[in-house]
Amino acid sequence: MPTTTPRPRGRRPKADPSTDSDDRYRAPALDKGLDILELLATQPHGLTRAEIVKEMDRSASEIYRMLERLVARQYVMRTRSGDRYALSLKLFALANMHPPLSRLINQALPIMDEFTRKAEQSCHMGVYDRGNVLISAQVNSPSGWSFAVQRGARVGLVDTASGHLLLAYADEGQFNRMLAEHTPLDGEVPITLEQLQETLAAIRAQGYLERESAQTLGVVDISFPILGPDNTALATLTCPYIRRIDRHVGPDMAQVREYLREAAAALSLTQGMSAP
């Protein structure tokens, strides 16, 4: 993921209670500690206690108590000079206790399972992997009628819905690296850079991709990005939609699309997944 540019120095406003969805669950002490951690995350060389007090716009005594607890729990450390505070590596260690992809899959599977029950369609999650797309999770429709791409399969970066979503929601550096690492897979449908750019622009404008599959006749790919906090795609959630022509009445394509939108939004770490 790209590094975040440190935000400009300036006084941090206190949290506005009116913005909380439910005031009953407010935890001011926890909010204060998280505010300190987020502030120090933007400061590679740390801050003095006086600087933290100024940035946080809080009393010196409450900041001192919170800092001491964070130091005691080893989330924050004092620099060698002893007059500055910086983040320790504890948060990094905690985040890496379980591989990020495994964590994402574990969070995604119950949501994907719920989607397949409501939509009566299969779905799969794709992530970027060494120049193409790896299908990292897949759930079949419980109805028994569906088209599925198996977990562990590698599919094309430049000719699949999953690949186009990953490219559409990559920053410039990621985009260039992904294309440079790409190697064509068997059966890959060729596309010019100009056509690719047009497709990606349309995806960004619409927020998702829905089109006939370039690989399988009769399948419509519906795909949404799973977004990280910087609005780049961590993964994609795709439904290879097939329409039944017997007397069974199931969700139509518009309903399936909305179910998939909700599933991707539930897994995303950012807002902005509402319908265009």
From TrEMBL:
Domain IclR-ED, first and last residues per copy: 90-273
Annotated Pfam families: HTH_IclR (PF09339), IclR_C (PF01614)
PROSITE patterns, sorted: HTH_ICLR (PS51077), ICLR_ED (PS51078)
Keywords: DNA-binding, Transcription, Transcription regulation
Superkingdom of this protein's organism: Bacteria
Basic and acidic residues composition bias: residue spans: 13-26
Domain spans labelled HTH iclR-type: 27-89
Keyword Transcription regulation in annotation: yes
Residue spans crossing the bilayer: none
Signal peptide interval: none
Location of the region described as Disordered in the Swiss-Prot/TrEMBL record: 1-26
Record flagged with keyword Transcription regulation: yes
Protein name: IclR family transcriptional regulator
Organism of origin: Hydrogenophaga luteola
